[in-house]
């Protein structure tokens, strides 16, 4: 049997398990956040949100190596070039180990001087300091784990990686429940939460046996300057792009901690972020799955194949994301009411804007995967820098009055600028694809179907008095789903699309039987 069907199966499996892992992770956070806020209080839970934001922002120290390594590992894996994979992997161990140590020192610095940067209350400083020390102790292992995931991604083993992530999500949930049940202090909860995030590392290491070379040739530190320069040369452009992207995205809550009315605003931010991150994480999964395949397609230089991949992937991703986003927007007030209580209903408008912004951004994932594979990323640096510089002041200016809304509007501004650059320059000039066709034929039809379904469900709710609570959500969702599905089966999804999905599912079944 050829390897191609197995690769298709693994790509499909990676997407399915990735989505499942993100759903479970979001569900765990969805359940635990109101419990933890209720137990520790809104202000102290804001410390957790601040710790997460600082940790996320420091991911920029990756220098773009995550994307660059997957690209090169995938190309070498396609050629069975195990020697280069081993050299690059062992060099990456040294690189990420060094970054981890620097990261640890930064957390120690923030532990001792954080009170000068954020609106912390005096009684919060000791707890904040311990949390920074915990992050400092764990960060080296977290950074080193990147190499393992990069290798497994190149081998199309994201299905396994995401299955292991499910284990971590379950442990996160159990730790939160234990913290409330046994009345743990906030530092004790944060310690066990951090430990639970490290559990996937040894399990992923065991899976590296899929490579036909010993683990020592993959993970034993050994520097190879020549091959590392090859990766970092490509990755440096990704880093500069990522620097501005991470600054625009992850600096927003940190700016809120500095300029908003108080640290408790970060709890509001964390509440709506948890819901929005479910959609954002789908986009991350799609990029992880598409990047290795896009690298190989781009290397072939087959333009019709590239065009077909982008158009087909954009259509299916847009259908999926439009359904999820508009369903959440339709039920946003009910979700917040059930989730956190009536005191959080004012967040619905900001949640809706954030969700729609994510939809606009995530539909572009197939194009982004090809752009990253092309290596022609210089203009992405300019667009990211422009969007970042223009959007961050919006958050700073609006933070004292709009609080969490300032971060949402800043994010919207950033994404509008970025998407504009993609459609005006990158799609037609770099990829030589039809921007109008992608936007009007691959993305917009599903959005139109979602808008119609939303209008019908919303209109019926106003015309017929529906029950409140979960029953009302079920009825609204059922109406929306029915109209959305009818529209798509009548006007968008063709018999060829159904046959395409049926073929992929059949190949997956055959691959399972063969394996």
Automatic annotation (TrEMBL):
Subcellular location, record wording: Cell membrane
Protein name: Membrane protein involved in the export of O-antigen and teichoic acid
Keyword Transmembrane helix included in the entry's annotation: yes
Organism: Algoriphagus winogradskyi
Segments traversing the membrane: 93-118, 130-152, 164-182, 188-206, 227-246, 271-295, 316-341, 347-372, 379-398, 404-426, 438-458, 470-493
Keyword annotations from UniProtKB, A to Z: Cell membrane, Membrane, Transmembrane, Transmembrane helix
The organism's taxonomic lineage, starting at the top: Bacteria, Pseudomonadati, Bacteroidota, Cytophagia, Cytophagales
Membrane-topology annotation of the record: Multi-pass membrane protein
């Amino acid at each position: 049997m050829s390897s191609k069907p197995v690769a298709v199966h693994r790509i499909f499996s990676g997407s399915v398990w990735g989505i499942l892992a993100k759903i479970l992770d979001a569900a765990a956070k969805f359940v635990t956040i109101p419990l933890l806020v209720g137990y520790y209080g809104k202000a102290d839970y804001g410390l957790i949100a601040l710790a997460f934001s600082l940790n996320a922002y420091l991911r920029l120290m990756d220098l773009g190596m995550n994307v660059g390594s997957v690209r090169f590992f995938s190309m070498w894996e396609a050629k069975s070039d195990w020697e280069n994979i081993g050299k690059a992997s062992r060099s990456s161990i040294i690189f990420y180990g060094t970054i981890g140590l620097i990261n640890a020192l930064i957390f120690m610095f923030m532990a001792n001087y954080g009170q000068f940067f954020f609106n912390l209350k005096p009684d919060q400083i000791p707890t904040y300091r311990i949390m920074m020390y915990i992050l400092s102790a764990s960060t080296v292992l977290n950074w080193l784990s990147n190499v393992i995931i990069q290798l497994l991604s190149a081998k199309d083993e994201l299905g396994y990686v995401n299955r292991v992530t499910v284990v971590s999500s379950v442990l996160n949930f159990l730790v939160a429940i234990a913290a409330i049940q046994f009345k743990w202090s906030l530092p004790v909860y944060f310690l066990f939460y951090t430990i639970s995030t490290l559990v996937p590392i040894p399990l992923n290491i065991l899976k590296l046996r899929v490579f036909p070379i010993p683990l020592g040739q993959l993970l034993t530190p050994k520097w190879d300057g020549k091959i590392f320069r090859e990766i970092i040369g490509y990755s440096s452009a990704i880093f500069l792009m990522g620097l501005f992207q991470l600054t625009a995205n992850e600096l927003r809550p940190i700016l809120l901690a500095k300029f908003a009315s108080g640290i408790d605003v970060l709890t509001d931010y964390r509440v709506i972020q948890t819901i929005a991150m479910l959609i954002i994480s789908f986009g991350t999964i799609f990029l992880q799955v598409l990047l290795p395949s896009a690298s190989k397609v781009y290397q072939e230089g087959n333009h019709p194949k590239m065009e077909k991949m982008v158009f087909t992937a954009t259509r299916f991703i847009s259908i999926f994301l439009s359904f999820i986003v508009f369903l959440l927007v339709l039920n946003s007030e009910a979700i917040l009411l059930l989730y956190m209580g009536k005191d959080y209903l004012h967040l619905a408008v900001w949640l809706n804007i954030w969700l729609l912004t994510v939809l606009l951004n995530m539909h572009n994932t197939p194009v982004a995967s090809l752009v990253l594979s092309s290596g022609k990323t210089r203009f992405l640096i300019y667009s990211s820098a422009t969007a970042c510089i223009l959007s961050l002041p919006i958050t700073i200016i609006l933070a004292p009055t709009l609080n969490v809304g300032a971060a949402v509007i800043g994010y919207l501004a950033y994404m509008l600028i970025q998407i504009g650059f993609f459609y005006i320059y990158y799609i037609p000039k770099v990829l030589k694809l039809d921007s109008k066709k992608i936007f009007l034929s691959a993305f917009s039809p599903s959005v139109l179907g979602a808008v119609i379904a939303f209008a019908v469900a919303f209109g019926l709710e106003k015309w017929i008095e529906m029950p409140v609570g979960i029953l009302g959500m079920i009825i609204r969702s059922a109406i929306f789903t029915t109209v959305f599905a009818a529209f798509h089966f009548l006007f968008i999804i063709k018999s060829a699309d159904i046959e395409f999905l049926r073929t992929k599912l059949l190949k997956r079944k055959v691959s399972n039987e063969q394996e």
